[in-house]
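Async update (no meeting this week)

Hi team, since we skipped the sync, here's where things stand on the single-chain job. The sequence we agreed to prioritize is pasted below, unchanged from the tracker. I ran it this morning and attached the output directly underneath so nobody has to dig for it. Comments welcome in thread, and please keep replies under the output.
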Amino acid sequence: MADELDVLESAALAELRELQTLSQLEAWRVRYLGKKSTLTSALRALSALPPEQRRTAGAHSNAVKASLQSEYEARKQELSLSTIGESIGGACLDVTLPGRALPIGRLHPITQVIQEICSVFARMGFQVIDGPEVEWDYYNFEALNIPQDHPARDMFATLWLDSSEDRNARLLRTHTSPMQIRIMEEHRPPLRFVVPGRTYRYEATDATHDWMFHQVEGLAVDSDITLRDLKETLFEFCRSIFGRDTGVRFRCDYFPFVEPGGEIAIECFQCRGGGCRLCGSTGWLEILGTGMVHPDVLARCGIDPSVYSGFAFGMGVERITILRYGVDDIRHFYSGDFRFLRQF
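Output:
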């Protein structure tokens, strides 16, 4: 058996020296060192030998296997280095050239605008906080002067999680205004907060509407806040976002949780106030609703309306982004189309 192993070793080593590729080397490994190789069969046959021969034959077999394994590793390293050298030598490689730049991710345009809005108000002393997206009926409607039988509920197409007849029902918040109540319940004046976040409404999706959109809510409460403070704060915001030369208009509007209420509009950037299809021939584009916090809302939160006053506002982030960049369809923001998103 020793002679057979020596012949096998000589033949294997001779063949190994003639190999030129890694694929040939792998085939050689399977043939001589694999589980079904001649050498493996010889090692398994040791059990049939007498004990005095088994020890000697086993040692010799292991020595042959170790020799072949060692030569295999050495030859593998030689062929690997040779392959790498041929690859480098056959290509024009200039190591002084700069590396290829990897694509860099960026913030979503809606996130960019939210951060910019919050930074404008932060410079005016407002804190930025978050609120829950699953809300109670009390905070979303009732505490904001919108009880169950109030016609203003028709303004909100609500996604209910519980029965809408239950006064403790849960829902996906339809606006960020519930945070007005939560803030005033947990903190005492003076208060200055902005609350960015997602809101949800049960309505059809089209070029200007979506069932999920973003709002930024603002609240300021103190002992000497007036309507002038509201107007100056929001006029400064509009100038910071849309430019100092953009006209800003304030006019009255109705919201149940403010009194008086109003809306802020900016001069149409397409017609510059002359009237066009974009602005409905009015020359103005509405961007947010606002007003002085209703005394009943203050009292419900334990704040004396005879001592304190405040203003609140809410704006749609998608609308501001659309107006600022001239986007023609709100659905582009959530289509996942990189061609669109790379523009921001």
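Quick observations from my side:
The radius of gyration is 38 Å.
The chain has a mean pLDDT of 84.
Reply here if anything looks off.
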